[in-house]
Amino acid sequence: MSTERIAIYPGSFDPITNGHIDILLRSLRMFDRVVVAIADNVRKKPLFSVEERREQILQAVNHDPRVDVDAFSGLLVNYVKDRGARFVVRGLRALADFEYEFQFAHMNHRLAPDVDTIFLMTAAQYFYVSSSLVKEVAQFGGDVDWMVPNGLSAVLRERLGVIAKPKDVG
Predict the structure, then answer these.
(1) Rounded Cα–Cα distance for residues 18 and 4 (Å)
(2) Distance of alpha carbon 80 from alpha carbon 76, whole angstroms
(3) Residues ≥6 apart with Cβ < 8 Å to 140
(4) Tens digit of each residue's pLDDT (9 = 90 or more) over 135-155
(5) Strand pairing partners for 35?
(6) DSSP letter (8 states) at residue 163
(7) Residue 148 DSSP one-character state
(8) For residue 93, with 0-12 CB atoms within 10 Å meaning exposed, 13-18 middle and 19 or more buried, which class applies?
(9) Is the bond leading into 15 cis (omega within 30 degrees of zero)?
(10) Distance separating alpha carbons of residues 73 and 64, to the nearest angstrom
(11) Cα(156)–Cα(139) distance, rounded to whole angstroms?
(12) Secondary element (H or E) of residue 68
């Protein structure tokens, strides 16, 4: 039996934000390995393919060997067990996140009592940043450089067909 501590960090990551990266890097201080699990959410139409998101995540963490990136569909707890993990990591930004995540964690615990959810508060500078907000700001030409890993804002603007606006001078 492996003593490796493995956590699953699920989400759509479309695109990954610096808030996600903050949670991921902090998770690596607690676990030997973190699997970033890209959820196939039928309610969302992704901007980036699973493979593109996978590469964006790996680049953001400099291909850290302790980070695996995978995709899944179906029940999260089944995926967690299939990967040999016992922990789910979730980031919390605001009170509304807590209510949703609280229900989700309790249902997962009911379905799989040996799986625990660990909540991490997002760093203060990212508490209101979401992938949806990043896409919306980028679509209207706003500066998202500080919200996403290096280089991703240019890829995002290109995908959205947005010409970058020059930065204000002075």
Answers:
(1) 27
(2) 6
(3) 162
(4) 999 999 999 999 999 999 999
(5) 8, 68
(6) P
(7) S
(8) middle
(9) yes
(10) 24
(11) 9
(12) strand 67-72
Catalytic residues: 20, 44, 93, 131
Tally the C-alpha atoms within 13 A of residue 130's C-alpha that lie toward its C-beta: 10
Tokens 């490796």 belong to 4
Task: Please report, as a single letter, which amino acid is at residue 129.
Answer: V
Q: Which two tokens stand for residue 141?
A: 């030409």
Peptide bond into 113 cis (omega under 30): no
CA 57 to CA 140: how far, in whole Å? 24
Do residues 59 and 69 lie in contact, with contact meaning Cβ atoms separated by under 8 Å? Answer: no
- Tens digits of residue pLDDT in 107-129: 999 999 999 999 999 999 998 89
- DSSP 8-state secondary structure symbol assigned to residue 164: P
3-class SS of residue 139: helix
Distance CA 148, CA 60 (A): 9
DSSP state of 11: E
| Tokens (6 digits) for 22 | 């903050």
| Per-residue pLDDT tens digits for 17-70 | 999 999 999 999 999 999 999 998 767 789 999 999 999 999 999 999 999 999
